[in-house]
Amino acid sequence: MKGRLIYLIGPSGSGKDSVLEAAREALQARGVRIARRVITRSAEAVGESAEAVSHDEFDRLEANGAFALSWRANELAYGIPAQIDQWLAAGDDVLVNGSRGYLEQARQRYPGLLAVLLHVQPEVLRQRLLTRNRESPEQIEGRLARNARFDDTLDGVVSLDNSGELRTTVQALLDIIEG
Fold first, then answer.
1. Is 14 annotated among the ligand-binding residues?
2. Would the annotation count 161 as a binding residue?
3. How are the residues of the chain apportioned to helix, strand and coil, as percentages rounded to the nearest 5?
4. Where is the Guanylate kinase-like domain (predicted)?
5. How far is it, in rounded angstroms, from Cα 72 to Cα 51?
6. pLDDT band for position 46 (50/70/90)?
7. Chain Cα centroid distance, residue 148
8. Residue 47 marked in a binding site
9. Of 130, 116, 131, 95, which is closest to residue 162 (Cα–Cα)?
10. Do the annotations mark residue 17 as ligand-binding?
11. Is residue 98 annotated as involved in ligand binding?
């Protein structure tokens, strides 16, 4: 691969979608492509620039090799279109909204990937998850506990704090990609 895969990870509510959207124009100006995920969630609930499909449709796409990367988490299925391999082969850098739990498998397929962990302070994450109103308070507390355990197990990632101003996080992401 001539291009580099930039694998953005972080807990639900850390602001990955907001960062990607805010950075989109600057990333495109730098020649970085942003892959659009396929998710088994309704189009109204996706909350990101993603393609919503049914579980059956996802399984069919996956069986037909439509994804370069795919995983399941939180009762949903996620896929990164196989088109990224063409972009990478052409020398383009590609940013994907990935999964912490799938990082090792992604590294096996793309050994040179740049893993960027987007994190926020626990109290900020709790408030974002509550505001989003997708989960019960008990589910949110479970996510926070899992998040605290999860991030301690990740090696070889560049950490990026998104607890403050979005523009600061976007600039830091651009610096990481250029660095």
1. yes
2. no
3. 45, 20, 35
4. 3-178
5. 16
6. very low
7. 18
8. no
9. 116
10. yes
11. no
